[in-house]
Design a protein that fits this description.
This protein is of the alpha/beta class and 141 residues long. The chain contains five helices and five strands. Helix 1 links the parallel strand 1 and strand 2. The structure holds cytidine-5'-triphosphate (CTP).
Length: 141
């Protein structure tokens, strides 16, 4: 008897998402779990320390190797890599043969240019939590 996929099985698609994932919080977990539910394999690009410094003007609290280690340990994540540059998204999508690009809706519309090579999905952010707010809260006592 050939294997018949059950109705609840996710489509055999590769999903890719990107982020800093510094001071890992529940908003990060939720976007990763919801991205994973869109396919069979989730690949996560964790942004390089140097990229963060350029983009956000500060070093992440946790180093890229620590952030990679945390994200790679999640059940929903199959593969991680270091995102060296924002300009390389198209290359990463191709390299990992991603069928779906997932980003938080703080980026809504910004990655529509990749719709020629994959589906682009923007997921709503978890309200009221961010790395920046956490850092401010902790450092403010
Ligand atoms: N994210 C989310 N909900 C939040 C915070 C982040 O869904 N409350 C998502 C982002 O949309 C992105 C991913 O998590 O897809 C990684 O976001 P990142 O920029 O690393 O986290 P932030 O908490 O937004 O960090 P910062 O405050 O430094 O911008």
């Amino acid at each position: 008897m050939p294997d018949v996929p059950s109705e609840s099985a996710p489509p055999p698609r590769t999903v890719i998402t990107f982020g800093t994932f510094d001071v890992f919080h529940v908003g990060h977990l939720r976007v990763i779990e919801r991205a994973a539910a869109l396919g069979a394999r989730l690949v996560v690009g964790v942004s390089a320390d140097a990229l963060n410094l350029r983009k956000k003007g500060r070093e992440p609290v946790f180093s890229q190797s620590e952030r990679l280690e945390i994200v790679a340990a999640l059940k929903a994540v199959h593969e991680v890599f270091v995102e060296e540059s924002l300009e390389l998204k198209r290359d990463y999508i191709t390299q990992f043969a991603a069928d779906v690009l997932v980003m938080g809706d703080d980026w809504a519309g910004r990655f529509d240019e990749f719709q020629d090579i994959c589906e682009v999905v923007y997921l709503p952010r978890t309200p009221a939590i961010s790395t920046t707010a956490l850092i401010e809260k902790i450092s403010g006592g």
